[in-house]
Design a protein that fits this description.
Blueprint: E1 19-27, E2 31-32, E3 35-36, E4 43-52, E5 55-64, E6 69-81, E7 85-96, E8 101-112, E9 119-128, E10 133-145, E11 150-162, E12 171-186, E13 189-200, E14 216-226
Length: 227
């Protein structure tokens, strides 16, 4: 499964040299597909990603100190950018050491950053080989440079489930409001804060997978480095 805390493989800017990004952070909740996946438990995560030309890939690891939960991702992808459009395809292998289960996911998406008022919008899709279903997220955001040291972004995310959460209802799933801020500490090093409020759509408790689909707020902080 894939969610805000577990989007490890950033589509880094295209360069003809190797670009490396690393992060370590903490999340108050593990938000996945609009669900409070660890029932209020927090998540520690770290990742290393690299990109070269049109290729990117990385390794992500997450663990909870309040639940017996571990998750590991390996991912690869290809990205292309035109003047105002960016689109990609990716493959991610997920492993859950505690449960000793694995899954594979195929992802694809595009974004457009030349909308009025400086807005950017995009659509992301992920397909689970195990669940044989897909999840779609439509995002719209705006970035603001506050000063030489501070950058912020604000946005919305709208989710649609189509058998991806196999024990949840299909259709409109959730909507969230998100805010992020990055404070540069030095060249290539920054402290990132984020907060999000998520609201469930069409929650149906006759589906076991909808029990964790609820209205909730979560936040997090991470240290990020670019090499």
């Amino acid at each position: 499964m894939k969610g805000e805390a577990s989007k490890p493989f950033q589509m880094l800017h295209l360069h003809d040299v190797i670009d490396i990004h690393a992060h370590g952070g903490w999340e108050s909740r593990y938000a996945l597909e609009g669900r409070d996946s660890l029932d209020g438990g927090s998540l520690w995560s770290s990742s290393v990603e690299a990109s070269y030309d049109h290729f990117f890939g990385g390794l992500w690891y997450g663990r909870s100190s309040s639940n017996d939960f571990r998750e590991l991702h390996f991912g690869l992808g290809v990205i292309q950018r035109t003047e105002n459009m960016e689109y990609y395809i990716s493959y991610t292998h997920l492993h859950f050491p505690v449960e000793e289960i694995s899954d594979s996911e195929w992802g694809a998406g595009f974004s457009y950053d030349a909308l009025p008022f400086g807005l950017a919008s995009g659509l992301d899709m992920v397909y689970s080989v195990d669940a044989k279903g897909s999840f779609f997220e439509w995002t719209t955001s705006k970035s603001v440079k506050i000063s030489d040291l501070w950058e912020s972004s604000f946005g919305t995310t709208l989710g649609w489930n189509q058998d991806f959460v196999s024990d949840g209802h299909d259709g409109w799933n959730h909507i969230s409001l998100n805010a992020n801020g990055r404070r540069a500490l030095s060249d290539g090093l920054g402290l990132v804060f984020h907060g999000a409020q998520s609201w469930a759509i069409n929650r149906d408790l006759s589906f076991e997978g909808d029990v964790s689909l609820k209205d909730f707020f979560h936040f997090g902080v991470s240290l990020e480095a670019q090499f």
